[in-house]
Write a structure and sequence with these properties.
By secondary structure, this protein is of the alpha+beta class. It contains 21 helices and 23 strands. Helices cover 37% and strands 20% of the residues. The chain has an 8-stranded mixed β-sheet with strand order 5-4-3-6-2-1-7-8, covered by helices on one side. A 5-stranded mixed β-sheet has the order 9-10-13-11-12, with helices on both faces. It starts with 10 loop residues before the first helix and ends with a helix. About 5% of the residues have low confidence. Keywords: DNA damage, DNA repair, Nucleus. One of its GO terms (cellular component) is MutLalpha complex. Belongs to the DNA mismatch repair MutL/HexB family.
Length: 665
Amino acid sequence: MEPGVIKKLDKVVVNRIAAGEIIQKPANALKELIENSLDAKATQIQVTVKSGGLKLLQIQDNGTGIRREDLPIVCERFTTSKLTKFEDLSNIGTFGFRGEALASISHVAHLSIQTKTANESCGYKASYEDGMMKGTPKASAGNQGTIITVEDLFYNMPQRRQCLKSPAEEMQKICDVISKYAVHNSSVAFTLKKYGEPPILRTTGRRTRDCNIADIYGTQIGRSLLPVELEDDVHKFKFTALVTNVDYSEKRGIMLLFINHRLVDSSALKAAVDSVYSTYLPKGMHPFTYVSLEITPTHVDVNVHPTKHEVHFLYEDEIIDKIKRRIELKLLGSNTSRTFYKQLRLPGISNPDMENNENEASLKNLDKERLDKDRVRTDSKEQKLDKFLLQKPIPNQDVNSSNSTSFTHIEDESFKINTSRKSDVLLTSIKQMQEHVERRVNVMLRKILKDLVFVGIVNQTYALFQYDTKLYLCNTSKFCEELFYQRLIFEFQNLPHIQLETPLNIRELVRIALECDEAGWSPEDGDKMELADSACKILIEKAPIMREYFSLRINEEGLLEALPSILPQHYPCSTHLPMYILRLATEVDWESEVECFETFCRETAQFYALTSVLEIESMPQRHNWLVEHVLYPSFKRYLLPPNHLKQQLFELTNLSQLYKVFERC
């Protein structure tokens, strides 16, 4: 058989195929047009529909309008005012950005646009077909804003038109779209009406979201709404929701989900919300939920679906888990006002009390059948690893009277922490460093850290923790180094400082460091005092940078007055301070902005992650408390682990493997 001839499709065919992906039904077309009106800052939007949008779909707004010069190309593909280069997608803040909505509609319907801007003395009207304007724009009277009229939708696509539902069902879908946008955009007045009939939906633009929900979806839902809010600095999102309490339920659940003000769907989030309500609602019943999620634009990929009905975003599992917990907490707090209905038992029906007893018995049997290897330890306070280790007596310290809580308020007397008001980071280099940290995060490792349960300390470097049924050995020092590096970046210019009661001479600190073998000094390097003077001069010159951005304070006399406080109740080891000061002068690249911040943060992170054997032996319980109650909780809360940290985490065993060993024995 001869192979088929590959040929380039006609431009009209290509555009109609593309239009079929964007405009699937009248409700899709309306959604695109509403988003255009909202992007134009409209405060009044009126929609008129005939035959479910197939005969007529008209949207009128009072937005900024379209310039007369732009009318010839407004319906061409990939024409937009929302972005100019691909990188703009990472910070897109508007609804439309593909430049395909009006073009797609013009390929499957008769389209006309009447518009007027504030700077023009009159309006203009133009008609379009297959992406091209017919004739020239004609002057017309009208108010500021735009009127877009779509007639005979899918007139040239009979197969698509035949597959659509009845006009009544398509009208219901249109009403659903407008209802959702009217709830979220409560400051915008929406009106929906059938052609030649009174409005069937109207909002004033002066009511709150819960009032609009009550007006549109019913007063029963309006009376049952509970506000839920959450703002998270770790994953950089803001969550606002209105959910029904446990007294309300319906067979067909309704979820209004807006991510960065864009109407989308999320099966994962819907499943998480349903799982929370499954504890309270009868089987097969669902709640009403309105959810608004605002995420940092750099964490969201909006360009994943032609109709933009779904988006992908970073840390999806972690964000959904936090939302789920917050909703569950809200429902628990509102559980005191539940209403129950009891149905009388009809003759011939078995005794419900007997059925309850049988259910309780079955639950007990089910609990017995649960395998021991599947039981997970969830509370680190139940039993510590220290119980199984031989404790050495500590001189001048009562071991029996000490416990972890006694160290909660311990502070080094030579340190005093000062905090200052937070300020916004404006430097592009720091923002790029933050984005780099977020991009290279290992999601699985982040999940392990988020749910870890601390077990115990092995030695100065390693500690044990449990995740699920697995036991891990973790290199605490390496994880600390990455944690301190990230906190320096994300708290840039906002770090509190640790005030030294007695300022230290940095020239003397450098001289002490040069005496150490670690410095690697040799006679060829020059006189130690001259090297110390040179290092002191560099640090005094760069002191304003360290003071402004990292809260490390060196005065004009060369005295070290303060160090940055990276984690609460954590202080750097004074033993390694001289070497740290020397490395700031010799290892930090002070010439390039990005390299300067990068090397300074790395050197500081290494210094803060170091510990002293002498300090650990003198105050072992203080060190153990610090690791368990400060460092590992900080791993859970802050650390975004990169891939290379996988090499510092070792899975020792898991319960299923242990039980296999016991079974053989």
